[in-house]
Amino acid sequence: MVLYETRARYFLVGTNQAQTKHRVLKIDRTEPKDLVLIDDKHVYSQQEVRELLGRLDLGNRTKIGQKGSSGLSRAVSAFGIVGFVRFLEGYYIVLITKRRKMADIGGHSIYKIEDTSMIYIPNDSVRVSHPDEARYVRIFQNVDLSSNFYFSYSYDLSHSLQYNLTLLQRPYELWTSPTLPAEEEVQTQSKNNGFDIFEDEGLPTQVVYGLQNEPYYKYVWNGKLLEHVKDIVHHDWLMYIIHGFCGQSKLLIYGRPVHITLIARRSSKFAGTRFLKRGANCEGDVANEVETEQIVNDAAVMSFTAGSYSSYVQVRGSVPLYWSQDISTMMPKPPIRLDQADPYAHVAALHFDQMLQRFGSPIIILNLVKKREKRRHERILSEELYPAVINLNQFLPPENCIDYIAWDMARYTKSKLCNVLDRLSMIAENVVKRTGFYINRSDFYCHTVRPDDRWGDLGGHITASGRVQTGVLRTNCVDCLDRTNTAQFMVGKCALAYQLFALGMIDKPRLQFDTDCVRLFEELYEDHGDTLSLQYGGSQLVHRVKTYRKIAPWTQHSKDIMQTLSRYYSNAFSDADRQDAINLFLQVYQPSESKPHLWELPTDFYLHHKNTMALPQDRRSYTLWWTAGILSYLPVPYDEVPCEDNMKKLKVKRVNRFEESIDIYTEFFRPYELTSFDDTFCIAMTNSAREFMPKTVGVDPSPFTVRKPEETGKSVLGNKSSKEETLLQRKTAASAPPPPSEEAISSTSEDDSEDDRDDDGSVSQRSTPIKLLTESGESTRTQEEMLQQSAKEPYGLNLSGFPAEKDLLIYERFAHLGESQHRVERTEHINPANILSLEPVSCFPEDSIYSVSPPQVVRDSRDEFESHVMTGEGQVSVLCREDMMMYREYVKNRYITPANASHCRCPACLSPAWEAQQNQGRDKKETAVLLQFILHFHCLPPDEVLRFQRNSRRTKRRPLGDMNESLVVNDSSATLLAGEALPWMEADSPELNSSLQFSTAPLDFAINPWDIMLCMSGTAIACENAIVVAIIFYTPTLRTPMFVLIGSLATADLLAGMGLILNFVFQYVISSETISLITVGFLVTSFTASISSLLAITVDRYFSLYNALTYFSEKTLQYVHLMLLGTWGVSLFLGLLPVLGWNCLDDPASCSIVRPLTRINVTLLATSFFAIFVLMLALYFKICKIVCHHAHQIALQQHFFATPHYVATKKGVSTLAIILGTFGASWLPFAIYCLVGEREYPSVYTYATLLPATYNSMINPIIYAYRNAEIQRSLYVLLCGCFQTNNSYRSRSPSEV
User: Fold this and answer.
1) Compositionally biased, Acidic residues: which spans (predicted)?
2) What pTM did the predictor assign?
3) Which of 699, 966, 1117, 1266 gets the highest tally of CB atoms within 10 A of its CB?
């Protein structure tokens, strides 16, 4: 959509994906505080919109003295309306200006909001200013709409897949809503004005039912922003957004794609931040309530009706009680307090009533809070929740009671003998069996032939078209973040196994850890948990699945500490502002002149508990606490029952089958248009074969094969013998268990029942082990044996024999077909049966999941192929009725307008009209599409084709430099008529590794500004330290231990500055891996030597005070030389590690934030820095104690408090603090980022932390050299030679300095 602007109005022009239908929304700008919208009910064509905008531009031009100014200007292009909001002045409109496609479900695209624009509607002449307006705008914009807000034009994200697909199975013939008078008038008018060239042919109109459903407003975040306009404008203008998470990954099962989608919907009721929103409000809405849905579908078939789709839903949310935590104490864990007594569990009843309506029964509560504590903290919640559930269950029927499972997960984790995930797996198995899951197709025949005990015990509601999930699992801990996410992952893993089994992908409903499938699913759930934790707690997850499996790397502990500190900082300092922004965005608080401002409220309790301000007229029953009518439909959810109350929420209309608003296939693929790969395939989703499967040869490609931890796609061992041994042990069966040795050490989470253990101990009879076929022992090698040997390298196994002559003949025919597809002889009669000869190649029965079924080509497809062959020979078949109907609808919807309705539109007369439109400037793309239709259906004569070719060549072409996307021609005729082959532009995809890379030119700029700053810093460092080195080298008197150490520090910093300069020069002049390794090693050596020299100076200062009497002995100088020798030796060793092979050039997945250093190398360097920093801190602390002790002794000896001594002591201590603080402030950010940063992070973070580290080498000469009186004296003598003195000179010790 596009927003146009005049002084009196805004005109918002919206269009569909094909740009064939347009609507216009008029917004008045003359009202200072009211919102006046005029929705034009007319549906415009593209030509009509152009004429309308032209008339508006002409009518709004200024008078004769200002001819140059336009009356209608284009304000902004957008993709949707978030809503309208007003504070103290006029209304604002919030538009989505940038989007990114995140997932695709059945052809329905799901987008993430990337950027928005907030535009003030009234013009400046009528604006009434208010001093507090700008502050409200800033608070409103604190809600970052570009962070995890999602929308879809055609899919209802607020409802689950089960709800959306069960709507399609209701009997709508009796519920068809009558056509509104306004719509009926518009349809009649468009029918009278339109011109249908097929109206006399008597072709029937195929009618289908189109549905329009109301969203579930609990998970809609802009419902209040659209509340004022939803009854005024057409529903096409309304676009509801959700907040939470959306991710999609591709699981490849021997090339068969399966999409796994994870959607999390955060509730907009009682929404807020961690410590400010706890428990529940008076309406039964709980804090941090998130509905998580995992959707698994066979991506080979996209349609909802013909494809296979499955989903499973679970919920997390705070404990439904009146409780909170006092954050005024600034404690990491504020005490929990119960705010209000609720003996009849009124608020819990309201909450579980909502869940029964949406999910049905059973409702299963998994309570993970602690039971045993030294101080009563979390236990308070369990002691209140359990009696509430008992009280509510006594009034429910036994079969619909709420199940309560309490388990102290934190205490169980601390035990070394217990496996947390094993216990969670048992709970998950029980939960999934009781609730079931949704699938839109009936069971496979193989499920009946090979029954599984677990599949037979599965719960849920079985329908004629599949299964329906009844009930839901509700998981909670105190924060509903870390423990809850791990528990939900285990339940989702169990449900995923059942979903894949139901889709026919595996032969047992069980998945093992350390498989590509589970690794992919675990990564998806970790992203899901990190996102939800950032939204509610202010940081990412602290404890992950690997933490509970006890296989997390040691670097994970430092990350956990940083996330804990980040969460504490966010809760203490920024949560209050975020809470105000959420309250204002959700319109929980609406500004008014008569109310106090938002920032003046002492609490927002009364905003979220509205019934506390009024006395309710009718009270709900404490015994019949559920909504009337729910129990009669249980266990099926009441919201999915086709009752009268639910049917009132739907609008059902009879529409044409070819209506673009319901034709998802045409909307997604656009077969009659020139489309691009960048638009159709714009989702860069995670791929199990690319991201997780090992990249070595001879590895089982099954995503259900258990792999060792070092056998992942990111780090693979190079031992070939171990790979071959692993290959012999692997099984290709989907649920084949691991060998006993692996099962003993792997942290699997399967059921502990005896039957399952028996199954695991034996190899499945249906598993097919891969065997390595060795060559024969013949001494002479023929050509066939050499081919067999070369085949082992890419495939991991040898061919059993050379292909037969018949197979080679089939391959030659196939290759000849590929070579001749563009130069088929028209005179030769082609028989399709002679081209392809397909035979079954599988020995498996057709019921087996491993079978390769012979392709069955239906008669329609064979006729279509023969028709294409005949068309290539110049013989056109007669069009059938379906083709005529499709062609009629396309021409009618896109190219027939009332303005030219008088002209004939038959195929024989279309060419002159099209040529005229071409000469008038019609877009080349549209002309190519029209000519494609004519050639496809009517095959114009050659002279007409040549004439259109010449016209197409005369059309202005788009410059080649502006074509950033690869054009795809949907039919070969469009390319023929375009005059020449369209250029194929292959766009370079950005690398995933955005880390800093030395000696490699950046792609974004000709010269990176960060590299310029690093080079300038290196120049300053080199100049400063070169002077210091020269002074110490040419001054014989500066040979004491202190100046030797200062010279070592200056030398190291000088080399570091030269390294930064050389890195800049080599980066933009010579790009080589060898130079990159040498440059990085040089910089590592110099900076390590610099930091180590600082440690040596600190040690020297300590010993000069601790052993002041023996400091000037020759032994001290020897110790200094040995210390420097060890310092430079270690620095040189660390710098040579990348050059000697410890780098990531051969394994980019192991790269760190500084390429080509590996993650282990950078972690070693950062850990060494922390050790040096802690040692320096301890030494400086001891130095301060010695200095203070000496000052006190001097004062006692002089029998009075010597004020100058104490002032000097205090000044010296402050100087040491400044020195140590400067060193820590320079290096600590980069060292911390080395531990927590990943190679996928933007390189700007690396630059921003590395640049302050170089400043330390710039400050070192000032602190340690230029402030020294001896070096100052030598500098003056070196520069001017005029400083003469006869005073005696003695070098001072560091203690005197």
Assistant:
1) 749-761
2) 0.60
3) 699
Distance (Å, whole) CA 764 – CA 767? 5
Residue length of the chain: 1297
**Residue 627's closest CA among 615, 641, 613, 614?**
641
Q: Which of 281, 230, 182 is nearest to 83 (CA)?
A: 230
Q: Is the preceding peptide bond at 635 cis, omega within 30 degrees of 0? A: yes
Distance CA 604, CA 619 (A): 25
**Phi, psi at 244, each rounded to 5°:** 160, -115
Compute the 3-state secondary structure of the chain and give helix, strand, coil in percent, each to the nearest 5. Answer: 45, 15, 40
- Each residue's pLDDT tens digit, 254-293: 889 999 999 999 999 999 998 889 999 999 999 999 999 9
Chain Cα centroid distance, residue 303: 25
Which residues lie across from 258 on neighbouring strands?
251, 298
Cα(914)–Cα(909) distance, integer angstroms: 9
What span, in angstroms and rounded, lies between the C-alpha atoms of 376 and 8? 65
Please tell me which residue, 367 or 1215, carries the higher pLDDT value: 367
Question: For the segment 174-220, what is each residue's pLDDT rounded down to a tens digit?
Answer: 555 444 444 444 344 444 444 444 444 444 556 777 778 899 999 99
Structure tokens at 299: 């991506």
Helix (H, G, I), strand (E, B) or coil at 880: coil
Q: Residue 435: is its pLDDT beyond 90?
A: yes
- Report the alpha-carbon distance of residue 1005 to residue 747 in Å, rounded: 48
Upstream peptide bond of 855 is cis (omega within 30 degrees of 0) = no
Which of 13-22, 401-410, 1136-1145 is predicted least confidently?
1136-1145
Other Cβ atoms less than 10 A from the Cβ of 355: the count is 20
Cα–chain center distance at 1037: 64
Peptide bond into 362 cis (omega under 30): yes
Q: For strand 256-266 and strand 242-253, is the pairing parallel, antiparallel, or unpaired?
A: antiparallel
CA separation for the pair 1094, 1176 (Å, rounded): 9
294: three-class secondary structure by DSSP: strand
Strands 108-120, 461-463: pairing is unpaired
Residue type (1 letter), 707: R
